[in-house]
């Protein structure tokens, strides 16, 4: 059986760590986990790691130089907090855009040769319901503010990448993971679903993603998300 190579960006904890855990259960999968600094990862023969800070172009370039080919790129890394746009400083807004918008774009730019080296050419963004303009109108719960602004912009990055890469056989998909009991998810209070349940759904969506359906914005449970 041919080996499939998946790169998970932001794999040190939470959803990212569970992604590499579940993907690595399939022996035919090779998993590359990106982390910002050396850390203890799941010990499995089909998991390797690279150091990558998506906020820093040179770091992304150095990491990409170590990876010659990948089938699926899952961009999970992002940050957020319970903040309001009216009280967000220029510096804080720039940080959101550098990490949550510029980060995914520079990752795709630098890892594009590795994706082109294979035929699957699948790019997945772990997005958020917060990035849906339709769902954010009159929203009462969840993350909003500058985080939502950055996630909506990241969704547009996916759309524009689709426009530029579709003819080269790329499949692009943004996935809302649901309300998950991660460190960030618990900022909005208790009640988030177990991480493994969200990731099971995410991987189902990844595996069913088709070129002809690209680009899609879906939730972990398969329901369609409005852009």
UniProtKB/TrEMBL annotation:
Listed Pfam families: adh_short
SUPFAM superfamilies: NAD(P)-binding Rossmann-fold domains
GO molecular function: oxidoreductase activity, acting on the CH-OH group of donors, NAD or NADP as acceptor
InterPro entries in the record: NAD(P)-bd_dom_sf, SDR_enzymes, SDR_fam
Residue stretches spanning the membrane: none
Signal peptide: none
Domain of life: Eukaryota
Record-given protein name: NAD(P)-binding domain-containing protein
Organism: Penicillium arizonense
